[in-house]
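Appendix B. Chain record.
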Amino acid sequence: MDVPLLKIQPIMKMLSMKLFLAVCVVTWLGLTGARAQDKSACLAVIVNKSSSLSDVSSADLQKYFKAEKTKSPSGVKLVIVMADVGRPERTAALKAIYTMSEAEYNDYFVGQTFTGAVAAAPKALPTPAEIKLYVSQTPGAIAYIRASDADDSVTVLKIGGKLPGDADYGLKMQ
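Structure tokens predicted for this chain:
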């Protein structure tokens, strides 16, 4: 039984169009997924709203948190704030910002205190809410929290031109 060619052509066109649309949708989903990350999987570096900092390199960020650079470009003394020991945000910051373990961090700041480079190790607070409150009330404060915990009471810094959630943003929780 032969099917006339005229009856097959419209069916083939319809199938081709559906295949084309399916490829477009899959491509769009793939591209939007590559552009954004889940903000709860990223650390946000936060500063007081009065800070002159807005975009810092990864190298400068490490210098700020290690107290190797103690003032912002506008001359304001920086106050480093950490999450308490055991918090997943602290573990992520030690890995991504400091490139140290907890023991190495402690040894580093004991050494810095002993030599007089710093007066004391950075302040540590127990919750993201307390960290945000402290940063919002303290000019020069710099800290980190999960990006999903950030709000308009603080300024989220760009790191190397990228914000939490952007593709290739470097400060991840894992």
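Further analysis of this model is presented in Appendix C.
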